[in-house]
């Protein structure tokens, strides 16, 4: 393998394995050593980058990284004089799995444990969510900032604030059990939702859809709906939403990894079995009186899946669902999605006005590519070419995704022609 190939392999494994490795090490050595676990994992990847390029590629690179990170964590603990105090509680088999003695009110999955532990109620919600995404997923600051519609500078402040608060207040990140699990559920749902979204809208040039992230989010969500202590309607609704979106994976990309918008997708490629599973989960979510944002978003996704063709979509019904969602959760992203549906009902001018009335729209247009991208497309549909071109060019400059950029450039080309 070439030197460039080794670099690509290390980068691929970091994206796919780093979060799991941190979770396993934290489960093994204790959540009090979370920062040490992150450092050990980082050092393992640095060592891989330095040694694999000289032809020393192991037979199982992922297992090599896990062993190296575990050994590095032990070295760091010994250096700090903490290894002897925790060694008695460990065995050689602990390296690749958390202890298996959890009872029915606890969580036995290392990664899900980490999510619950990092979603500490003492942290501000936005700080805790940012810390969780950084710790569990291995996301870069740029990826987390994009997921939270924030700037990298603001995101770094959130992470620093969260770590500082935990340290100064002497708060230990511990795995909750029983009733304590439920107090963290809302934040856990948000983390899994953002984890899936980052996979669905990946910025990686070689992976416009990161199925591993989506699959991990779905796996963790499935564990929630199967766990007696946290089996809630919102979890079923969130899993249904993920199923509906994942069912469209094969229709979202061309053979050249270019994105295909909903209107142009071959719906015969949609996974009807997964759509049926999503409907089952949505039916389960309807038990009880709770109505969450995930219920509404899953109902919206189900409506799209029910239409055999794009032109058969019932836009008025979708608009009613978005009205409820915007009333419950009036975020800029929800408002933007509602505007798209409003335009499909024929009120394009109203959709533009609705987007422009979003709080902080000037900043959003300068920093979040999706806002100028959609607004530019709306102006394009009204034949306001000058405004459309300026906004689409702005979106092109902002998006970190090569696949999204290519899509925007194609729209710009139609304007030039």
Question: How is this structure best described in words?
Answer:
With 417 residues, the chain is mainly α. Helices cover 66% and strands 0% of the residues. It has a domain of 89 residues. InterPro entries: DUF6596, RNA_pol_sigma70_r2, RNA_pol_sigma70_r4_t2, RNA_pol_sigma_r2, RNA_pol_sigma_r3/r4-like, WH-like_DNA-bd_sf. Pfam families: DUF6596, Sigma70_r2, Sigma70_r4_2. This is RNA polymerase sigma factor.
Helical fraction equals: 55-70%
Overall geometric form: globular
What count of helical segments does DSSP give?
21
Structural class: mainly alpha
Q: Give the SSE string.
A: HHHHHHHHHHHHHHHHHHHHH
Low-pLDDT segments, ≥5 res: 91-107
Rg calc: 23 Å
> Percent of residues in beta strands?
under 5%
Number of E-type strands? 0
Look at the structure and give the mean pLDDT. Answer: 87
The biggest sheet amounts to: none
Give the termini distance in whole angstroms. 45 Å
Domain DUF6596: 184-285
Protein name: RNA polymerase sigma factor
Domain RNA polymerase sigma factor 70 region 4 type: 115-166
Domain RNA polymerase sigma-70 region: 21-82
């Amino acid at each position: 393998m070439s030197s460039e190939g080794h670099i690509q392999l290390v980068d691929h494994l970091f994206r796919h394995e780093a979060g799991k490795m941190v979770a396993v090490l934290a489960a093994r050595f204790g959540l009090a050593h979370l920062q040490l676990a992150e450092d050990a994992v980082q050092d393992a990847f640095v060592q891989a980058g330095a040694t694999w390029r000289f032809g020393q590629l192991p037979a199982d690179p992922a297992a090599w990284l896990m062993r190296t990170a575990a050994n590095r964590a032990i070295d760091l603990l010994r250096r700090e004089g903490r290894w002897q105090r925790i060694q008695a509680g460990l065995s050689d088999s602990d390296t690749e799995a958390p202890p298996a003695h959890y009872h029915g009110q606890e969580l036995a999955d290392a990664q899900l444990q980490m999510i619950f532990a990092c979603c500490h109620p003492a942290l501000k919600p936005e700080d805790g969510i940012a810390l969780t995404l950084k710790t569990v997923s291995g996301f870069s600051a740029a990826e987390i900032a994009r997921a939270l519609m924030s700037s990298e500078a603001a995101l770094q402040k959130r992470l620093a604030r969260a770590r500082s608060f935990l340290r100064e207040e002497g708060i230990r990140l511990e795995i909750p059990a029983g009733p304590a699990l439920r107090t963290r559920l809302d934040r856990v749902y948000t983390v899994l939702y953002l984890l899936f979204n980052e996979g669905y809208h990946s910025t990686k040039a070689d992976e416009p859809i990161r199925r591993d992230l989506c699959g991990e989010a779905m796996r963790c969500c499935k564990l929630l709906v199967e766990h007696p202590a946290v089996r809630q309607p919102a979890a079923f609704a969130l899993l249904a939403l993920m199923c509906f979106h994942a069912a469209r994976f094969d229709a979202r990309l061309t053979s050249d990894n270019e994105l295909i918008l909903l209107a142009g997708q071959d719906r015969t490629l949609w996974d009807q079995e997964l759509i049926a599973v999503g409907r089952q989960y949505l039916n389960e979510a309807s038990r009880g009186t709770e109505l969450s944002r995930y219920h509404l978003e899953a109902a919206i996704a189900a409506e799209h899946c029910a239409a055999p063709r794009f032109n058969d979509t019932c836009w008025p019904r979708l608009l009613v669902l978005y009205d409820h969602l915007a009333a419950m959760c009036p975020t800029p992203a929800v408002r933007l999605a509602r505007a798209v549906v409003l335009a499909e009902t024929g009120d394009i001018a109203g959709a533009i006005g609705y987007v422009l009335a979003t709080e902080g729209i000037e900043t959003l247009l300068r920093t979040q590519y999706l806002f100028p991208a959609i607004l530019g497309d709306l102006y394009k549909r009204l034949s306001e070419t000058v405004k459309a071109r300026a906004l689409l060019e702005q979106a092109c400059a902002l998006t970190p995704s090569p696949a999204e950029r290519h899509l925007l450039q194609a729209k710009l080309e139609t304007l030039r022609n």
